[in-house]
Amino acid sequence: MGYRQFSNGLARVIYDDELVGADCEKLFQRDWLEANSGGATVERGTAVMFEHNGVALVFKQYHRGGLAGRLVEKTYLYSRVENTRVWREFSMLRQMRALGLPVPRPAAARCVSVPPLAYRAALITERVPDSKNLTEVLCARPLDNGRWEKLGQLIARFHRNNVYHADLNASNILLTGSGDFYLIDFDKGVIRKTLSAKDARSNVSRLRRSLDKLRGRYTPFHFSEDNWQALEKGYAAGE
Prior knowledge:
By secondary structure, the chain is α+β, with helices and mostly antiparallel strands. 36% of the residues lie in helices and 24% in strands. The chain is globular and about 55 Å long.
């Protein structure tokens, strides 16, 4: 697997040359994406799924939240490309895959300097085949407690490898048709030298809050206290 980089004007691009070619910068262009993704509209905060050279991919544009997001939307303060959110997430995905953790394969990242001090960025990853996020799954059907235990074990496995997921919620967990879980969206995440028990617990608590919120929003939503106890059992076994 080879990772290559190039510059084009104010843009820096890194890409996996086994997934996409040196012409991959076109994949970040809004017109090209909308023409090649079944008519999807490229909006901030929205993942766009498309295919390129027979490879299923997902495009994600970085965006700010809250008041700052309404004012500046897609731009961020720029120091050096290695410090940008997109470069850090691309690198983190590479490291986690090297550790054997189930995360999407990074395909390409692009960072465009917006003088004097800002930048725009987007990330493309390989799509996890035959998968749905946990929110979609639980709106459609329940999972048995064995599956919940497996999810708890997986979260513990990430924590054993000192991975901190900054936004572990149901929509950032994928379940494949064969029953495997993946974690996605590691923006603002980090692999620490040592992950504290407090931060590990905050990840698990964030997931619980997400599930409770979704249970109040959707009917049906197949999540019970018994399911959560099974997840906790799996997590404890995996620590």
